[in-house]
Design a protein that fits this description.
The chain is mostly helical and 441 residues long. It has 17 helices and no strands. Helix 11 (247-275) packs across helix 15 (377-389) and helix 11 (247-275) packs antiparallel against helix 17. The chain is globular and about 65 Å long.
Length: 441
């Protein structure tokens, strides 16, 4: 009984500590979206230029998630997380001085040469930032796979995944007010970086790695072919079988691509879109709107996790299919509404779309974790990360170019079609087994 109580204490301590830690990564990643309108107004940077930057850094982040996923299955999650966040903090402080760096390089404070150099400096800093952003989710997924039994993984991982939405919502509100109160885009980087620096200290003090690192046994009923042989050769063979040669993981990766296209279309371009509607919103209100999209996503993740374990018998992929079809419906309705519809109506429908979208966003990783098992979970999620962040080719430069030439009129019908295709793809997994562990042998 004492051992069970101790395990529960450490399990929830790890879950909560990693939630706080991972939410800090959003403070130093999603702040750029709110600086874009101010940067565009001050320096005349086009949406196409911003789109190119978003596409490049998104692809870098996807590759970084993949590399860090493989590393996370073999490293200490506590220090992996802390080192990555520390680097992001430093780079965000530097980003606030990107115009100063551009002046130092060109000797100018305006003009085409200065703007071109500024775009390049911002791109380089954002690329480096996203290299280290990959140190966020991978070690956290490693922790969840080792601390939560597969039978309750959907419910508790859904709780953990609210850290995505909490971080994005808080930085949306913060940056919305920072732009107005300070009148300077630079503070969108300096203030979040200061908050994230405190998060680094919190991770170091509060977080621990696997149950064995605090003297507790590993989870019951999670036996794999790798148990008893921890050599590099055995690990590589195990990862090849459970991840790279596993068709289920590839289907999940393709589905996540469609999920992230919809998600990033809202998160990256939402503030700009909402401020350019006929019934436009102020920077503060557009920040609150995106924040509510995230908060609704939190509720949706919790609901999806509970329903997966309680109503679908742990078959998280079935819940993903159902919710993606509902996302498509919400976005179709948004497309059919007239441009002059009230902002409150747009807000409610965006909240509903977020509610249904963030279930699959969390549960696809849960499905991959269960299929790849705790020994290759982060590698599987890393592979999915490469595919999901390929979405920025469409949501970054694609939507940036489209908006410059055709406006935003077709945004929601495009995203509705993407969600529908994603639902159809994941539905092909309807009858697969729940996990990849050895049972009854």
């Amino acid at each position: 009984m004492k051992n069970r109580h101790t395990f529960r204490y450490w399990q929830w301590r790890v879950i909560i500590s990693s939630m706080v830690g991972y939410s800090m990564f959003y403070f130093v990643r999603k702040n750029f979206s709110f600086a874009m309108p101010a940067l565009g107004d001050e320096y005349g940077i086009t949406n196409t230029s911003f789109g190119v930057i978003l596409s490049i850094v998104g692809l870098v982040y996807g590759v970084s998630k993949f590399v860090n996923g493989i590393l996370a299955d073999r490293t200490n999650a506590r220090w992996h997380l802390a080192i990555g966040l520390s680097a992001c903090v430093v780079l965000n402080f530097l980003f606030g001085w990107s115009d100063t760096l551009s002046t130092f390089i060109t000797g100018k404070t305006q003009g085409p040469d200065f703007v071109g150099t500024l775009v390049t400096v911002m791109a380089v800093l954002l690329i480096l930032n996203n290299v280290f952003q990959g140190c966020g989710f991978a070690p956290c997924n490693h922790l969840l796979a080792h601390w939560i039994h597969p039978d309750e993984l959907a419910t508790k991982t859904a709780v953990w995944n609210t850290s995505h939405s909490v971080g994005a919502a808080l930085v949306s509100i913060l940056c919305g007010y920072v732009i107005v109160l300070f009148g300077d885009w630079r503070w969108c980087f300096w203030i979040p970086a200061g908050i994230a620096a405190v998060g680094v200290l919190f991770i170091i003090v509060s977080l621990r790695d696997t149950p064995q690192s605090v003297g507790l046994p590993e989870l019951a009923d999670t036996r794999t072919e790798l148990d008893g042989d921890d050599s590099r050769k055995a690990f590589r063979a195990f990862v090849r079988k459970k991840v790279f040669r596993n068709p289920v993981i590839w289907v999940l990766a393709v589905t996540d691509l469609f999920v992230y296209i919809v998600r990033f279309a809202v998160l990256d371009w939402g503030p700009t879109f909402l401020q350019n509607r006929p019934e436009s919103l102020s920077p503060q209100l557009s920040g609150w709107t995106i924040a509510i999209f995230e908060v609704a996503g939190c509720a949706g993740m919790l609901c999806a996790g509970w329903c997966s374990d309680r109503l679908f018998g742990g078959k998280t992929h079935r819940m993903c299919a159902v919710e993606l079809f509902l996302v498509a419906l919400c976005l179709l309705v948004l497309h059919l509404l007239p441009d002059t519809v009230s902002s409150m109506t747009v807000l409610v429908l965006l909240a509903m779309a977020g509610f249904f979208l963030y279930g699959p966003q969390a549960l696809l990783a849960v499905t991959a974790t269960k299929q790849a098992t705790k020994h290759a979970a982060s590698s599987a999620v890393g592979l999915i990360g490469v595919m999901s962040y390929a979405s920025v080719i469409f949501t970054g430069v694609g939507l940036g170019w489209y908006s410059d030439h055709f406006g935003w009129n077709s945004l929601f019908i495009l995203m509705s079609g993407v969600a529908l295709v994603g639902g159809i793809v994941v539905a092909t997994l309807w009858n697969i087994r729940n996990d990849g562990y050895i049972h009854g042998e």
